[in-house]
């Protein structure tokens, strides 16, 4: 009888263990169910948020498209009814979309956009008076420089032109201004600049100095190329103008090498006249006035 008793006890112990394991497995399944519920709630809130903001213009386009596709009968949408047209384009209400927000049909959007002025419709500003005043300012600078050059016996040492950038004062960098392959400003070059600087001293315009070389395929040693040589010559002129009293903040130097010639390489004048320094008295007018400025300069 002892053996059967031990068997019954063992069976009860095993049954208890199985029941305990079942309770543990049930708890795990409950956690999975809870997690699924939270995921569904999150999806629900995302959907609610996404449909809470409606693109009214697209809704109106959809409504118009469905109305034209299914007709305009008196009953339902599928039979051509006007259920979608209850929020008519003429009304300000949008109760079925977003209360308090007016519905603007696509046609109204297009009309509003068409009523806005386009860049091509905006009349250009009249720069005539300002252009004339600036050209006269340039002419005063040119007259003062020419008068000083004539007194110093250097007439024709400088050339003048007006383009979109402003007044161009061209100094041909012959052997009297810079030695060959050098950016050392010679005495004659300093003399020319001493005549150019005073009329520019009290001018309100900024000044850009551009260095240019000719197209001859010769060595530029000790400079690696014409870029460095032209930049060094422009910088030398800027340094001299600073010593003449012109503020550094008004000055800049640029080297163009042989990329902006006045004459093609086939022209005999290119050897001497393309090798130059240009002192540009920059225009203070907007860029839109560039053509008018150049035309006015050509007329004067």
Automatic annotation (TrEMBL):
Keyword hit for Cell membrane: yes
Compartment annotation: Cell membrane
Protein name: OmpA family protein
InterPro entries xrefs: Bact_OuterMem_StrucFunc (IPR050330), MotB-like_N_dom (IPR025713), OmpA-like (IPR006665), OmpA-like_sf (IPR036737)
Protein family membership: Belongs to the MotB family.
PROSITE patterns in the record: OMPA_2
TM region(s), chain numbering: 31-54
Membrane topology of the entry: Single-pass membrane protein
Keyword annotations of the record: Cell membrane, Membrane, Transmembrane, Transmembrane helix
SUPFAM superfamilies in alphabetical order: OmpA-like
Compositional bias ranges of the Polar residues kind: 82-94
Domain OmpA-like span(s) in chain numbering: 165-285
Domain of life according to the entry: Bacteria
Pfam family, one: MotB_plug
Region of interest (Disordered), residue spans: 1-24, 81-125
